[in-house]
What does this fold into?
Amino acid sequence: MGGIASKGQLQVSYLRRAVITVPLVLLLGFASGRSVPAGDNNSWYAALVKPALTPPGWAFPVAWSTIYILMGLALAMILNARGAHRRWLGVGLFAAQFLLALVWMPLFFGAHQVGASLTVIAGMLLGGIATTVVFGGIRPTAAWLMVPYLVWVSFAGVLTWRVGQLNPDAETLVPAAHTSQML
It folds into this structure.
């Protein structure tokens, strides 16, 4: 029974992986977002002068939830590509850029480090591009599922850069948050 798996078997295998990766990516993203008060619930953020392009507060959790679902599906595709050349490189790049994404929220909203947050976003974007390129060599659909992340991170980078420009004293507006919103 060492033959090639059927299309149905491959789909079931992918779904099993997706049932793990999608909730895991969502849960970790949610935990990062709840680690400090964020968005409209953050007094520091409320005190900032925001760029004109800033979307309404409700758009951020909707966008990130959608993006995390797509990322989880992309990761499941790569994990399901057993024997694919550079599979583990893709998984490692995904993990690295995802860890940066998890760090961004507490760094920006909790520690009020706009400059460091911009550096993290640059790392997220570069890591996301590298991940997407490697994913594309394994499963092109997985690479396409990463594109909304790249677009959103680019947009978040522009917003963060503009926040820094509009608020040169941003780090001192309100004391940094040290409490978790996880409950």
User: Anything to note?
Assistant: The domain at 27-172 is CATH 1.20.1260.100 (Ferritin). The two ends are 48 Å apart (CA to CA). Helices lie at 7-34, 43-47, 59-79, 87-110, 114-138, 140-166. The chain has one domain: 27-172.
